[in-house]
Amino acid sequence: MLDNKQGKRAKTGGSRDLKKKKKKKKKKKKKKKKKKKKKKKKKKKEKEKEEKEKEKEKEKEEKEKEEKEKEKEKEKEEKEKEKEKEKKEKEKEKEKEKEKKEKEKKEKEKEKEKEKKKKKKKKKKKQTCSNDIT
């Protein structure tokens, strides 16, 4: 009564078939459990991957922010340096102008003194001349 095609006995006696059915059911359940576990693992891995990617993106954004801040600070420093340079240049120019004015003043004074001396000399000459005549 063996049926070679199916590899099991014909459906006359029942206990063996029941056992096989139970085994099959168990196997199916195990397979389902395994599949569920695999799905869970996959989901977990995907979640972890997403979290890692999010973290990486956050880090990238933070780095970019820091770089921007650094650049801003650098620009500020450069501007301050430029302002200081300009201030120094203005001060130098002011000093030069002051010196120039002082020099001019001194020159004018010298000229005045020279003129005074000349006038004095002329007066003296005139006086001597007038004395001679009388």
From TrEMBL:
Residues 47-114 have a biased composition (Basic and acidic residues). This is F-BAR domain-containing protein. GO terms for cellular component: nucleosome. Residues 1-134 are annotated as: Disordered. It comes from the Eukaryota. It comes from Plakobranchus ocellatus. Residues 18-46, 115-127 have a biased composition (Basic residues). GO terms for molecular function: DNA binding; structural constituent of chromatin. One of its GO terms (biological process) is nucleosome assembly.
